[in-house]
Structures are given as C-alpha cells and as structure tokens.
C-alpha cells in the first residue's frame, strides 16, 4: 500500500511540475542564453554516445536480419526492414534511453544538490521564479536536442546497415537503396521524430522532479540520481507503446 501511495504521489508530482512548466513556458530574453547553454550540454556532449550506439545498432540489426531473411529468399527487403525499425523504434528509443539517462541523472544531481544546500529556497526568497530559471530552459533545450540527435542516429543507423550488407553480404548498394526508398516513406521518419520530442520533455521533467524532491542530504541525492535512470528508462519504454498506438491511429 505504501508503494502504491508513493507511486501515485510521484506521478502526481510530475504532472503538477509539467503544469507549472506550461504556465511559465514563455522566457524573458535574459534566459534565452540558458537554453543555448543547455543545448550544448545536452546535445554536443551526448553526440559520441548516441551516434556510436546508432551505428552499431544498425549494423547488428542488418546482419541478423540478412542471415534470417536469406532463409526465405527475402534478403532484398533487409534495407526497408532495417530503416523502418530504426526510424520508428530503435532510433528514438535508444537515443532517449542512452542520452536521457545521462541527461536526466545530471539534471537530478545538479538540482538535487541545490535543493539539499537550500539554494532553491534562496532563489524563492529573492523572488526568482525557479521554474522559469532552472526547468523551462532545460525542457526547451531537450525538445530541440532529442529530435536532432534522433535524426542523426537514424541516418548513421541506416548507413551502418548498408555498409554491413555491402561488405558482409555483397549486396548491390543501388538495389539496396532503391528498395529502402521505395518502402520507407516520410511518415515513418516523422513518427520517430515525434516520439523523440515527447521523450525529451519526459526525460527533462523526470530529472527535474527527482532533483527538486531530493531529501536526506548527500545520501538522498545518490538515491535520487539512481532512481532517475530507472524512471527514465521505464518512462521511455512505457510511453513508447502509447505513442506508437497514437501515431498508428494518426498516420495509418
């Protein structure tokens, strides 16, 4: 019963924080620089992780698909299969989990340390809107960074699959590309980009909420940071199902 109560309170707290962010979404000009700083922190520093994972995911998926599709004489369709899997699911989900875990845990650690050292209370005492100052710039940066990282991950994932098919299976690159572009349409790509926008907002809200609700000093800060990684992973996976259903209804 206690676990259920804590779970309901956590979801309620994240929802209330999302409402506060929505009410404070318009930033004054002096805070715009914070958005660009967060874009650099979230995006540029996360590029190696996201792109390396995307390349090898595309390569592994193409290799496994080619071996199994060859049994049915359908190796021609490996290209579309790899592209659809990466565009719709693997690109946005893996990027959100890998980059999101890194970003959200960093947010939780930063805001949590401010909470336990009473810096958040100091901002309130000075009349500073801490939601507009600390949370909104991170959210706006995330909904810009995550789609861009996902688009790059999609590109490199598909390219990695193409390289593997050429060197490992001797596929004709022209035929591979033609089959892929014939079966894969823009809405497949846009579905993943749409998911990444939601994932970026979700990751940021979870990281901020866990940071702002940190209690128990440095020990509590460690627990909150660890919990953030788990919460982000579960949140991305669960929300992915509902987003998939939504986009299937919307586009198909």
Please tell me about this protein's structure:
The protein is elongated. It has 252 residues and is mainly α. Helix 4 (78-116) packs across helix 7 and helix 6 (130-169) packs across helix 8. The protein is 85% helix and 0% strand. It has 9 helices and no strands. It has helices at residues 2-23, 32-42, 47-69, 78-116, 119-125, 130-169, 173-183, 186-212, 217-251.
Main attributes?
single chain; 252 residues; mainly alpha; 9 helices; elongated
Task: Give the SSE layout.
Layout: H1 2-23, H2 32-42, H3 47-69, H4 78-116, H5 119-125, H6 130-169, H7 173-183, H8 186-212, H9 217-251
Briefly summarize what is shown.
This protein has 252 residues and is mostly helical.
**Form type:** elongated
Helix content: over 70%
- Number-wise, the strands total 0
Strand content range? under 5%
What is Rg?
A: 21 Å
**Helix-strand category:** mainly alpha
- Give the overall average pLDDT: 89
